[in-house]
Amino acid sequence: MSHAENAHAENAHAENAHAEGRYTEGAPLHDHRVPAGPIEHRWDRRRFSARLVNPANRRDRAVIVVGTGLAGGSAAATLAELGYRVDSFCHQDSPRRAHSIAAQGGINAANNYRNDGDSVWRLFHDTVKGGDFRSRESNVHRLAQISAKIIDQCVAQGVPFAREYGGLLDTRSFGGAQVSRTFYARGQTGQQLLLGAYQALERQVAAGRVAVHARTEMLDLVVVDGRARGIVARDLVTGEVTTHLADAVVLATGGYGNVFHLSTNAKGCNATAIWRAHRRGALFANPCFTQIHPTCIPVSGDHQSKLTLMSESLRNDGRVWVPRDRHDRRPPGDVPEAERDYFLERLYPSFGNLVPRDIASRAAKNASDGQRGVYLDFADALHRLGRDVVRQRYGNLFEMYERITGDDPYRTPMRIYPAVHYTMGGLWVDYDLRSTVPGLYVIGEANFSDHGANRLGASALMQGLADGYFVLPGVIGDYLADAPFDPVTADHPAVADTASEVRGRLKTLLAVKGDRTVESFHRELGRLMWDECGMERDGAGLRGALERIPELREEFWRRVRVPEGDDLNQELEKAGRVADFLELAELMCLDALHRAESCGGHFRSESCTPEGEARRDDARYAYVAAWEHTGVGRPPVLHKEELVFEHVTPTTRSYA
Q1: What are phi and psi of 293, to 5 degrees?
Q2: Which DSSP symbol is given to 467?
Q3: DSSP sequence for 399-431
Q4: What is the phi/psi pair of residue 64, to 5°?
Q5: Catalytic positions, written as ranges
Q6: Exposed/middle/buried for residue 507 (C-beta within 10 Å: 0-12, 13-18, 19+)
């Protein structure tokens, strides 16, 4: 069967999935808050048209911010600086332990200090193209506009960005760009940016405008009369379940990559906050869009609970290769130059090793076929630049690699392989970052809005800080201007019922007393998701997963073993998170099945070119797929938001 015939057959299967009752289709979605007019003026127009809350009234408005990473930390600090009363929640023992601290390589911004042709327009274009034309133009242009302000903000906070000899901030290149727009602090950019946001947050804590609730996990969203009015949370030390009420709720809880069990995310990263909000009425957009990062340390055995990322910045000076002979098992140092295939440089000569992550990951998978090693080699850089320069740029990353693997990357090429890293899907939001539940805002990786089907490297930190420092504070007043809302207390029926549901769910998990560990279920689900909804998907595999996941979920609630104890009980924490993953995974596979095209991180083997590259279907799938929850085991409702491209024409992505 030809590629065209395969694609036609899969389109028919996608229609059959609809006809078979896997989902129903609802009313289309429209983002009514995007201003009209020239795209470069839309953000300014929206900020001007948004209603304001005067400073005296802000003191009477309360906002809950869940998550203290770059998006949540910057949002809580900035809202408090404006005068709002803020409650900040994190499940870590300190806001500084948020997973943003693990980001390594850098943050994009269109400052053009290198004078190499960068601009707001070029960053906008690269991001839309890098996302394989599945993101909104207005959102992406706003992100590019704000990017320069982020760098100014962080420098003012004292973030120690790398500098050139003359004192200007230094930049380097990242995948999907031919300019050097990525600002960095060695290989610990996320840590330094997070400390900047953390000190801004702590300033507001000292001023009495922010109350931080550490080691406290959100377990449900409180919705009263159709508005988000608070959360139900559990103290992870005492086990106490409490309700917290406010005028608006902001979710900044990151992505859901740990549905795959093995990912580069911290083990505690989870989807409970956004999934519980989804169950309360927030639409979930593009859940199948997950990013596979090409430069991770390979899996070494069944004992692993997570994977380690090696920064994309290493691809600036490192060269990626495999042995030309598929059966070559020699150590990399024994493979002579003539017998190496620098496949990214061969396949994509214009971008070389700096192609976007989705393309590099698929190329690495195809080149290695799971057998040959894939190597990231710094021999040329060491010869050209010298050991001291390489150490200055990447020293802490080299040290981390050596501690984990026992190999010295100054002497031996790094072993790398693709792994789950980031999720582009998330709760649907409009231009103001509002979800479909009034009063619920979603920022950073927890929403879907800016990256389309693939995120360019160094853009996650840019989006998180843009949302937290600039976008959310600029528009949330438009909603809070309608306050004060009707008073709500903990004994309100809707609040009490939500808290009761949370307590009941916890009791049910403790009462099962089965014979399988939480980890065993998570590992089985992750393996299934990686095999059938990972780097490559096909219709048959996705249908098989959609049959198996409900069976595994039923088995979980019948056989899971959670040790007794309703106070400090980490297995109970994990059990609740895995239970949510078992529901989210089904929606991810359904979304992947219905989208019978390849785009970005979503690669359907039936929809590719003869050369094995992704084949998009803009005529049928140029939309955001936003899913409405109707109950566990019931067909969800699909709402489509059509994507309109006025400034960047969708074309076949070429990096050759």
Answers
A1: -90, 130
A2: I
A3: HHHHHHHS--TTTSPEEEEEEEEEE--EE---T
A4: -100, 130
A5: 357
A6: exposed
Residue 58 has pLDDT above 60, yes or no: yes
Residues whose CB falls within 8 Å of the CB of residue 480, separated by 6 or more in sequence, listed in order: 53, 58, 61, 63, 84, 247, 248
Residue with tokens 């024409």: 649
Check the CA dihedral 66-72-73-74 and report its sign: negative
Q: What is the dihedral of CA 529, 535, 536, 540, to 10 degrees?
A: 0
Enumerate residues 6+ apart whose C-beta is below 8 A from 599: 132, 133, 134, 452, 453, 454, 614, 616, 621
Q: What is the pLDDT of residue 144?
A: 98
Q: What is the pLDDT of residues 538-588, one digit of tens each?
A: 999 999 999 999 999 999 999 999 999 989 999 999 999 999 999 999 999
* CA 308, 175, 652, 654 torsion-angle sign: negative
pLDDT band at 15 (very low <50, low <70, confident <90, very high): low
pLDDT beyond 70 at 13? no
Quote the tokens at residue 169. 């901030």
Structure tokens at 43: 């953000």
How confident is the model over 307-329, as pLDDT tens digits?
999 999 999 999 999 999 988 98
Give the list of residues 6+ apart from residue 208 with CB closer than 8 angstroms, or none: none
pLDDT at 7 over 80: no
| Backbone angles phi and psi of 428, in degrees to 5 | -70, 135
Q: What is the DSSP letter of 387?
A: H
Q: Per the confidence metrics, is the pTM higher than 0.85?
A: yes
Q: Measured between alpha carbons, how far is 365 from 344 in angstroms, rounded to an integer?
A: 12
Cα 339 from Cα 51, distance rounded (Å): 65
Amino acid at 257: G
Indicate if the pLDDT at residue 352 is higher than 80: yes
Residue 509, CA distances (Å) to 242, 278, 561, 574, 575 in order: 19, 21, 8, 11, 7
pLDDT tens readout for residues 329-343? 899 999 999 999 999
Residue 10 scores a pLDDT above 90? no
- The alpha carbon dihedral of 563, 566, 567, 568 has a sign of positive
pLDDT computed for residue 20 by the predictor: 75
Strands 248-251 and 319-323: unpaired
The 3-state DSSP class for residue 230 equals strand
Nearest to 227 by CA among 192, 274, 277: 277
Taking alpha carbons only, the member of 372, 378, 332 closest to residue 353 is: 378
Strand partners, 65: 88, 250
